[in-house]
Amino acid sequence: MNLVLLLSPILIPTVGALVLMMLDAFQKEDGGLAMPTALLHFTAAAMALALWQRGVPSDTSALHGFLAIDKTSLFLDATIALGGGIASLLAGGYLAEHKLDRGEYYPLIAFSTAGAMLLVSASDMLMLFLGLETMSLGVYAMTGFRRGSPRSAEASLKYFLLGSFAAALMLFGSALLYAVTGHTDYAGIAEVLHAAPANAAADAAAAIQVVTRSRISILAMLLIVIAMAFKVGAVPFHMWTPDAYEGAPTSTMAYMSSVVKAAAFGAFARVMLAVYGDAASAGSAAGWPAMLAWVAVATMTVGNLVALTQTSVKRMLAYSSIAHAGYVLLGVIAAPREGTGTTAYASVLFYLLAYTVSNMGAVGALILAGRRGAESVSYDDLAGYARRHPAAGFAMTLFLLSLTGVPPTVGFFAKFYVIRATLDAGYTALALIAVVNSAVSAYYYLGVLVKMYMRDPAPGAALASPMRSGYVTVAILTAAVFVVWMGVMPERWLDLAREAVGAATAAAPSAATAGGNAAP
Amino acid sequence: MNDASQLSLTQSYGPIFMIVAFSLFIAVTMFTLASLLGPKNPTPEKAIPYECGSESTGAAHVKQSVKFYLTAILFVVFDIEAIFLYPWAVLFQRLGVTGLVEMLVFLTVLTAALVYCWKKGALEWQT
Hints:
The complex is a heterodimer.
Chain A: H1 2-26, H2 34-54, H3 71-97, H4 105-121, H5 125-143, H6 150-181, H7 186-200, H8 204-232, H9 240-247, H10 250-276, H11 288-308, H12 313-334, H13 341-368, H14 385-388, H15 390-404, H16 410-424, H17 428-454, H18 470-488, H19 490-507, H20 511-514
Chain B: H1 2-37, H2 44-47, E1 50-51, E2 54-55, H3 66-90, H4 92-120
Antiparallel strand pairs in B: 1-2
């Protein structure tokens, strides 16, 4: 019973997906599954919150070390479930409007959500891989859901091939770690890696083994970082992102860019901190924050500069999601630092939730602006849109301002906390680059607003007008509530995130004791 | 212990490398000899592609119906089910009720998938 309770946030979407499959198979005509799917996701989020409130059961032996159900994973579970719920609602509106409404989509979303939750809860390399694949397989299928469109097929194939490649790299890294440590669980791997220097003095053969282990663990670290960089779309492993996002149905793009990214980052931060987090004994592999710093600079800069040149809003949002991956990386880089690290880790969780709601909202507003046969994808399509339809235009404005990072919205605080954590960790140059990048990004986000409020559509061009869908409206309202609520009370939400990681660091093995005196 | 494990590693993988080297050697030698010594007298008849001794018809790249993939995937799924069931049956006594429940969960999920495929028409060959 304890096991069922612990796993309930993951079990709800899993069992729900099976039920949805049956509903889909036995119903007479397609459609109508969006609301059950959304409710399923929101129930899972509520269950995660209930577990949080009740206190996570301390006896997690039933999990055999495969999963870590703690406040960190519950926070991320709730983020993922919230994002998945909003995405299901968006799908309900979008797929129906564009005559794509076939029932398979909804079980796929639920399965992917279950996979994403496994991914963020994983405390074992095998579970990490299993979660990654369960999440990704559903998303590959959802990407290619527009079956008649070659672009959608191309996007799906590209995403599938590169995603499988990344998964293979991840598996290779895990195999190497298993080869040198004999463990697949994070704690066990970390323990062996940490124990290495103590034995080194014993004899020459042991010393050689320690060196080999250290070198192989660096290689494994690189492979895992590359695989995760693929999944979060960090430069230079971002090539698939714009094509996959643009070709995918827009509701899938919302899911991919928010939920998948949040899950991948959650798992990334956990595996890096648990296995390589201890600077004293991880050997040269402890240099990963410095290496990731270059990745973060490249990700932010390339993402923003290329986003500047886009004419399609959908593609711009794809590049902006690359840029945002760069900002989140800042928090991950600062997280292993002794003392200020916990706040940095908390800022990552805060950012993931903030980005999920802001991005879901922005994509939702874009979906709202497109009717059947006239999907608004380019800047020009949106000319004068906000003047003709003030409410829909305002929704788009709110979310784009949040993505830009303008104060009353949550986006500002997300960036602020991450950059503050970077400064606290002593990466001044990195923080500076982030601020400059953030300023650059304002150009292309505000460009949409300029088009919507100040430009007239070209003569004869099709006028964008919002579609009517209760689903999309509810989705946008939900996202808007979080964007404003978190923007008005950011400290409260940051405290929640801090509580989430506080529990995690207390449970993490020996990271605090072994590395305590070696912190710079 | 470390030296021993190093040694046994070389010992156990050594023969594999020898086989790889030996087969490479044989293959390369045979091809080289054939191309050096063999008589070459190409005629148009010899140059045309053929299949099973007769002339080939149609393009080399044929579109396969997606049904083949569906059937193959279903086959793999139930193959894996069998692979899981055998060790479970062997250890049935030791696994006890937990094992039974776990296997029932697994089979339920699999049955759900089968029912889904059936209702969706994946088992119909002619549609």
